[in-house]
Amino acid sequence: MNDSVGIRQANLSRVLRLVHVDGPLSRAALTEATGLNRSTIADLIGALVEGGLVEERAPDPVGRVGRPSPVVAAHPRVVAIAVNPEVDALTMAAVGLGRRIPVRVRLEVDHLLTPDETAALVAEQIGLWKAEALVGHRVVGVGIAVPGLVRASDGLVRDAPHLMWRDVALRDLVSTASGLPVVVGNDASMGVAAEHLFGAARGEDHIVYLNGGASGIGGGLVVNGSPVTGAAGYAGEFGQNRPGIAADTDRTVDGGVLEDEVSRARLLSVLRLRSADEPTLAAALAASTAPEVRAEVARQRRILTTALANAVNVLNPSVVVLGGYLAALAAEDLDLLLTAVSDTAMPSTCEDLSIRVAVLAEDRLLIGAAEAAFADLLRDPLAPGAPGAPRAS
After folding, report:
1. How far apart are CA 256 and CA 217, in angstroms?
2. pLDDT at position 193 over 50
3. Where would I find the beta strands (DSSP E) of the chain?
4. 184 pairs with which residues across the strands?
5. How far is it, in rounded angstroms, from Cα 139 to Cα 86?
6. CA separation for the pair 86, 108 (Å, rounded)
7. Is the distance from CB of 52 to CB of 390 less than 8 angstroms?
8. pTM, rounded to two decimals
9. Does 179 lie in the same domain as 34?
């Protein structure tokens, strides 16, 4: 690649990434953000329009003085397929480059999905969507958020214990079944990426993220603005830490780890629910006044407090973000949780700390998985032979 081609690719990437992350922007705003001149911006936008990646819209005339600048937005028909396999359901969605979610489905299951079964279901659902809801859309790839250890170098699922998957080449299975490029990653790592770019931790450089799902508790880290994945990609497994539990009466499992004690299954049990998606569980917890529910919520919050204080002591984040059932636990009283964590951790580590719930809610893992699937497109927007790209005439 010669220098001029490399510079053009980098500039196309900058423009597309700005529109993707910040939403629709005027030509004038893009010119200011990139420092490029107006004619170069016009040329880049023209190429992205021709490539079917962005569209230009008429500006809102209200309150404008002088000649308005057209607004550039991600094309609504460019999507990635996001997948989250869990012990009780397979959730899938098509996520647009502009983060619109035109279709999603939660396929509840009464058994543990095998990797082969997962690949077949994903391919079948993509085929149905392409024939109906996604007709005319460009599907650039598949991102899969797995509740377990995923090797960063090749996407091998080393261990998803609750699904009973071990050393599974899930990327290859799904790619062969669907005919699309596939990226596989840890669900919480994908969740923190989404909340960092678009959600509760946007603009923050030091983040601890804990995700509570049907398979337990995972975590993601951002330090100095960059994700921390560890030597092989396994960092952030907070759920496997053994929490300090001050009162013996709070312990339910001898030698149990955090996700044994702060548990979605225990919450469902006291609520007398067999299963529930995240909004249903959160609503049930918020509405219940049953003494056994209030007692279990209080118990889990005490143990979660210690776990968060330990993480704050080690990592000194500016923000802790909680997703899934952990968000429902925290939402009982966020201020009180922050006070409890601050009273337990070293005072200096909490001076500027905030605790927030994931604002992307049940979409966070799907948006994070889609972000991974969009990575190659955002790096080289007009790469020849990219999936779904317009063919040269």
Report:
1. 13
2. yes
3. 25-26, 54-57, 71-74, 78-85, 89-96, 103-108, 138-146, 149-150, 157-160, 165-168, 182-186, 207-213, 216-223, 226-228, 319-324, 354-357
4. 144
5. 23
6. 9
7. yes
8. 0.92
9. no
User: Confidence class of residue 388 from pLDDT cuts 50, 70 and 90?
Assistant: confident
- Tell me the CATH number at 145: 3.30.420.40
The full DSSP string for 265-294 is HHHHHHHT-S---HHHHHHHHHH---HHHH
User: Hey, what are 235's tokens?
Assistant: 């960092």
Cα 275 to the chain's mean position, in Å?
22
- What tens digit of pLDDT does each residue of 322-364 get? 999 999 999 999 999 999 999 999 999 999 999 999 999 999 9
User: 79 by DSSP, 3-state: which?
Assistant: strand
CA-angle at 103, arms to 47 and 278, nearest 5° = 125
Helix, strand, coil proportions of the chain in percent (round to 5)? 45, 20, 35
The answer, yes or no, to whether residue 391 has pLDDT greater than 80, is: no
Total structural domains in the chain?
3
Alpha carbon distance 375, 69 (integer Å) = 29
pLDDT for position 66: 58
* 56-66 pLDDT per residue, tens: 998 866 555 55
- Please give the C-alpha separations between residue 388 and each of 80, 117, 371, 372, in angstroms, as whole numbers: 11, 25, 17, 17
Domain that holds residue 249: 202-359
